[in-house]
Amino acid sequence: MPAVPSLPGPFLPAASGPAASRTRCWWGWGYADAQPDDAACAALGALVPGTLARPLPLPRAADLPMARPRVSPPPTLAHLVTDDPQERAAHAMGKAYRDVMRALRGRPGRIPDLVARPADDRQVADLLDWAGEHGVAVIPFGGGSSVVGGVEYRGDAHRAVLSLDLTSMDRVLEVDTAGRAARIQAGALGPVLEAQLRPHGLTLRHFPQSFEFSTLGGWLATRAGGHYATGRTHIDDFVQSLRVVTPAGTSTSWRLPASGAGPSPDRLFLGSEGTLGVITEAWMRLQQRPGHRASASVAFTDFHRALDAVRALAQSDLAPANCRLLDPGEALLSGASPDGSSVLVLGFESATAPVDDRLAAALELTRAHGGRGAAPAAGGDAPADAAVHAWRSAFLRMPYLRDGLARMGAVVETFETAATWDRIPALIDAVRTEVGAAAAKATGHPATINCRLTHVYPDGAAPYFTVVAAGRPGDEVAVWDDLKAVANDVLHRHRATITHHHAVGRDHRPGYDRQRPEAFALALRAVKDALDPRHILNPGVLID
Amino acid sequence: MPAVPSLPGPFLPAASGPAASRTRCWWGWGYADAQPDDAACAALGALVPGTLARPLPLPRAADLPMARPRVSPPPTLAHLVTDDPQERAAHAMGKAYRDVMRALRGRPGRIPDLVARPADDRQVADLLDWAGEHGVAVIPFGGGSSVVGGVEYRGDAHRAVLSLDLTSMDRVLEVDTAGRAARIQAGALGPVLEAQLRPHGLTLRHFPQSFEFSTLGGWLATRAGGHYATGRTHIDDFVQSLRVVTPAGTSTSWRLPASGAGPSPDRLFLGSEGTLGVITEAWMRLQQRPGHRASASVAFTDFHRALDAVRALAQSDLAPANCRLLDPGEALLSGASPDGSSVLVLGFESATAPVDDRLAAALELTRAHGGRGAAPAAGGDAPADAAVHAWRSAFLRMPYLRDGLARMGAVVETFETAATWDRIPALIDAVRTEVGAAAAKATGHPATINCRLTHVYPDGAAPYFTVVAAGRPGDEVAVWDDLKAVANDVLHRHRATITHHHAVGRDHRPGYDRQRPEAFALALRAVKDALDPRHILNPGVLID
């Protein structure tokens, strides 16, 4: 299969101006001014055989089929609620490929009747009460970056739909400097909360790809995976306590460094994806800002030997903060390697001690598995190693490139999973083979399927796949849905989780339902009945 | 308050012979032949003013009030079930001070009608089915080392009581050497599972004080805290997947290194203390056996500066495996320091690299907080540092000493908690002051209240308290219950958890009920109704 060539060039305008002054793209990723223009889209499309001759036009919210709101808020809550069409359109879906494509094709999901922006817990509770009384579905909405159908309404069992946008609740309310923790409102976007922590010398250091466009509450509700490639990385492990407004009352757990008192209350709400309650704030464990860093990249001729090297690293005491293994296609696409090598991107950081020795030990370990190490790039904020830099830059650009390719009618999406080491090689091979065959059959063109390991553990790893294929004009979403069904079947046969950090939402329900123990499903339904007896919260996600 | 002097001497016979040939003590801790004899008890008692002149006699199971079993098992299950009085007595209670004292005074809790020892999941399920049909309460029982009333029946809402002893299910069923994991049956005692892992070069490295007398299933059901004093130490973090037999069906989660698919199924059962199902096996994450070790002790004149040193260590990258801070009384009692200093016991270990540099860095850090470091004792299995050795030895002897003092009518018990760093100093002071005053008032004698930090985190610590006081003859349990109520009140006011690793059981219910968010209580009751609709599993624990 041909790999998409490296994209070092002019496809994306540089970020311009401070975030607050920039306009978010309602139909696609990130900022509107960072989306590829028509010429850039056409150049991207030329790299993928079988795509359109010219880009699909930019969609306009005003063109969407939008019914009048079927409910009105009561006067006491009216100031929190809007029915502005642009707002409703921007809250209709998340940012998966299938969401972008539906917007481009003018066939979005059901558009919410209203958008509410509560400012405190009381207002959240009042909105839930009102919604419960009037049969209104409530979709909690943070940054709206879901790629699994987590923030849209499907079906027609509810009288109306309210998108509950938490981003007005974005303050860091308290900081415990000595104990390195802060109480943070759930609606704070990544940069918003980090800016408030910076004066205290502290950082959450949770940097998912969506960092700029997702919120603490969204990370908590979806068990997001973050910055650290080894050790603790899921947001779960950084939670000291949670505050959750449910239709049955507000749950506030104690701030504790650890506890053995019954099943963890927090762990029930972490990953509940807005179905059991609305997370409104959390005490989070923070880090000191790291002053010591070192990074390097290591090339491998043999991907399977690279897997062994990464496993050895994950089972050592070295604890790299970054330990991302790119397969040859991914290395090529990101500009990390042009020669068909796999590339391991390694980074170490510490607030308290130099890390050069750890990097040196890691490089020595990789050499024992055939790794060809570049010279380490020590100190400073910007890693000097070109491959590391190329990878980071591509990582942040990738969702915009996806949207540009979508405008050319291509099928471009990612999915991720995790499995134990014994299953990893066969799993990756099966995804390539089976999804590749399905794509060729569906589109008549070969597809590109790349893989990287985003997070590694002593007992397994999290592979992340990128699929780039031609579409069928007007039928792109159906093509992707078919490929995803094939992928999900591979994951299930290899006992690989339906999601390592993208969440379940609506798109992953079939895979989740097969994976989840039935006794746990019974338990989860019982909890849903107890906390959300009218079933207004994010209907269709996780449970029916 | 006077501290109990160091006990270096002949109070305990040395362990004799292999474990399999030794008799367990039915009424007290551990092995019968390791219990202090009458002379040793008297010598212990002489150290605590106000205790009895001679030890209470050893209790005999045959003297206990024991009704005939109120149910008989069906013929198909009869071979798994016994009504032998000695067995029933040994399964009547855990090993808390109040359990030991009730046995010594001939007033045990309700004795189970029957004891069952299933050999597989099918038999566990059949026993649950039978119990459900006949209104029989089922108390899952591992090593029986609960110190919170977790394995006894209270009340009379059930027709009969079955103690479900899992220790016949004690095999390591599969080992994944490359992925460092094993599938282990829940009834394996610590030494039993470690002996099966050793030939593979692997170890769970979960060494609670009860290690010899507690099981994997017990650790999982109670969220036990273990070997590591920093970082991941609760058994929760080492679980790859769980198998749980519930009255509503068996729950088996997938083996995964990590997952973001909904709330964690395993985390609902971890800490469920036998109320939602019977954990029958788990895939556990293992460690390579550490070949590199170094340990040392550090003395501090000022306990509060020692707290600062420990916090700095917990917030560094150094990750000591042992980082236990003993207050002056605890240091004296364990023989770690005779001069009124606080003592920090530090240990590092690694399977992959020398740890001497980490120990040296840790010692340097403690010196900045007034620590007086002894020379490090590097390498080898046995730490050369005398204070470290004294502490370890005392740690394992302590429960036997407690039983010896109990036979002298003393009140001797421990309790533990965890809180964020900002609360630790005032919390420890309040426990000393308030529990000390209550003990003096109740017994007319000053009490000894010692404290150590068993586990430390970047954001807080787990203090562990030992109380030694005179009793009131015949009324010892009531004295302890009163002191514990005072302690629990202090914990609640300081927002310190009712338990860091001893679990909730029945004894901690009042504190747990006040700590747990009410919305979570609603959820937990709903899960109980769904998975154990007849409410036969461990009634009274966690929920009613």
Number of strands of chain A: 20
In CATH, the topology of the domain at 292-493 in chain A is named Vanillyl-alcohol Oxidase, Chain A, domain 3
Counted by DSSP, the helix tally of chain A is 15
> Regarding quaternary structure, how should these chains be classified?
homodimer
* Most residues in contact: chain pair: A-B, 94 and 94 residues
Largest sheet composition of chain A: 9 strands, antiparallel
Task: Provide mean pLDDT of chain A, rounded.
Answer: 93
Percent strand of chain A: 15-25%
Structural class assignment of chain A: alpha+beta
Quick one: CATH superfamily of the domain at 292-493 in chain A? FAD-linked oxidase, cap domain/gating helix
Give a brief rundown of this model:
The first copy, chain A, is α+β, with helices and mostly antiparallel strands and 544 residues long. Helices cover 31% and strands 19% of the residues of chain A.
